[in-house]
Design brief:
Helices cover 84% and strands 0% of the residues. It is mostly helical and 400 residues long. The chain has one domain (16-198, 211-399): Growth Hormone, Chain: A, CATH 1.20.1250.20. Helix 12 runs parallel beside helix 17 (347-374). The radius of gyration is 20 Å and the shape is globular. The two termini are 35 Å apart. The model has no long low-confidence stretch (mean pLDDT 83).
Length: 400
């Protein structure tokens, strides 16, 4: 016991020392909101459908637009992080996110809803690759743990924000509920401005002057070592994950005959469990390595996805939701591995480029699931998600 306490103190000191703890806290708050609000969208789907007359296909297109904008923003997010500083980009991301939320809350037509959604997806994309490079710059021994804790903060946002905003939307209006998120982004902006250094990497950057040599250097950096294999694994995970979180509440109500409130609770359970899984995945990576830990989280998550079509009842589905949530640890492992493998001078750009590739693949998933749902094949859509996740597991076992 004393040894465990000693190790805990050591890890805490390494994470919090030299002012890094405040950086970790500020970035975690930003990711709590950036990721959490994206997961508010599936809960708000019924409100959007009622307000704007959306079908499942159109709802899927809206969610694909959200994730597509998030994907496309990864590259400029990485480049700008390398060129003007990581801290500055995090602040800009938080400001634009608050403005986009205001546009969605004030939408009077479908086009405004889509414009606000695109703006929010792009703004949070600026946050995406930069938060990884901040921690790879500041932490030499506890990178996986720091990133795992930050991603756990995102899972906490996914747990808390959908439930709270759903209650507010039901008791008040969905517009007031959505608009209540704006002051939270203002708080995050201040925290990021105060605590995160304007730049965490060196002043020298390979992307200061784009040339053929620079592009060649970037391409060589993202195609070296095991990065292509890890990117392929992350593509499979991203497709399965985006499709799952986009339509799981609707799947539970339409296919499993659960009430919307129970479906929202199970959705919250998924992210509450992810809150524990993600930091444990980071710790597992630091101790056992990426490959072994990745096989474990993908194996358990795949099992849950395959069982999902055959399980009914609130308690069995709640238990299975926890099993499926283990797959969320994949992102900690793959993205930390990629960020740590990239040269420092193109770390943000390289991370943004590869993130854009797998996020674009993942962005197609909600539209595909929505179309299958409108055709009466919702369950088949979730089987497709299980197949893709299994391919990612096989790649890990055979190629990594």
């Amino acid at each position: 016991m004393s040894e465990a306490i000693s190790k805990t103190r050591t890890v805490t000191a390494e994470l919090w020392g030299d002012g890094r703890g405040w950086v970790l806290l500020a970035v975690s708050i930003g990711w709590f909101l950036s990721y959490g609000v994206r997961m508010v969208y599936p809960i708000f789907a019924p409100f959007f459908q009622a307000e704007f007359g959306l079908t499942l296909t159109t709802t899927g297109l809206l969610l694909s637009t959200l994730w597509g904008a998030y994907a496309l923003g990864q590259i400029p997010g990485g480049i700008l992080g390398d060129r003007i500083g990581e801290g500055r980009i995090l602040v800009i991301s938080s400001v634009i996110s608050g403005v986009a939320i205001a546009v969605v809350a004030a939408s009077i037509d479908v086009w405004m809803l889509f414009v606000g959604t695109i703006g929010f997806g792009f703004a949070t994309a600026l946050f995406g690759p930069t938060r990884f490079t901040v921690f790879t710059d500041l932490y030499s021994k506890r990178t996986g743990s720091a990133i795992g804790l930050t991603m756990a903060a995102g899972s906490a946002g996914n747990t808390v924000l959908p439930v709270v905003t759903a209650v507010l939307a039901t008791s008040l209006t969905w517009r007031l509920s959505f608009g209540s998120l704006i002051p939270l982004f203002a708080v995050a902006t201040v925290a990021l401005w105060v605590f995160v250094p304007a730049r965490t990497s060196s002043e020298s950057s390979a992307v200061d002057d784009f040339s053929r040599e620079t592009i060649t250097h970037i391409l060589e950096s993202i195609s070296g070592n095991s990065i292509p294999v890890v990117v392929a694994i992350q593509m499979c995970f991203s497709f399965a994950f985006q499709g799952f979180v986009s339509f799981y509440p609707t799947f539970l109500t339409d296919v499993k005959d659960l009430s919307p409130s129970v479906a929202a609770t199970l959705f919250g359970i998924f992210f509450a469990s992810s809150f524990a899984v993600q930091p444990l995945s980071g710790i597992g990576m630091d101790r056992f390595g990426a490959r072994s830990t990745l096989i474990g989280v993908l194996g358990i998550g795949c099992l849950g996805l395959w069982l999902l079509p055959f399980v009914s009842g609130t308690l069995p589905l709640a238990s299975l939701t926890i099993v499926v949530s283990v797959i969320s640890g994949c992102a900690v492992l793959t993205q930390t591995h990629i960020a740590a493998s990239l040269p420092e001078d193109v770390q943000g750009t390289g991370m943004g480029t590869v993130k854009a590739s797998w996020m674009l693949v993942g962005a197609t998933s909600p539209l595909i699931i929505g179309v299958l749902g409108d055709l009466g094949h919702f369950t088949a859509g979730f089987v497709v998600l299980a197949v893709l996740a299994t391919i990612g597991l096989l790649l890990t076992v055979v190629r990594l």
